[in-house]
Amino acid sequence: MNVKITDLHPTQLYLSEKKLQDIQMLYQSAENINVDPISILAVSNRFLITDGHHRAYQALLAGRDTISAEFDQDGGNALYALYAQVCEERKIDSILDLKDRILPQDEYEAKWYNWCDGFNQAATLLLKRKADEE
């Protein structure tokens, strides 16, 4: 299915400069761009990106209004909803809001992956506690 890029809500805080360059080269090298669909979840009447932030950002820069997407079948809705909440708190409400958060690959890996590890541990404990209370 195709979704409007402006309807997508990010669930990550940074983009990798290298990943964007790789995708940009793909866009420049082919007349018919065959980019894998991004993965999304429908949570609270929003489409959360679970995989494909870089592809969505590059599609927007390339002047596209829509991007191919498929629903994520791996679960994790509650965790991605927490990621989206963190993004909202940092005023990241659309894919374009990541334009000032593009980092060199080594810095991206250090900041994003380390943040994710800590956040995932805390979120897992929080979600487990909520489930136990219910």
TrEMBL record:
<protein>
    <submittedName>
        <fullName>Chromosome partitioning protein ParB</fullName>
    </submittedName>
</protein>
<dbReference type="InterPro" id="IPR036086">
    <property type="entry name" value="ParB/Sulfiredoxin_sf"/>
</dbReference>
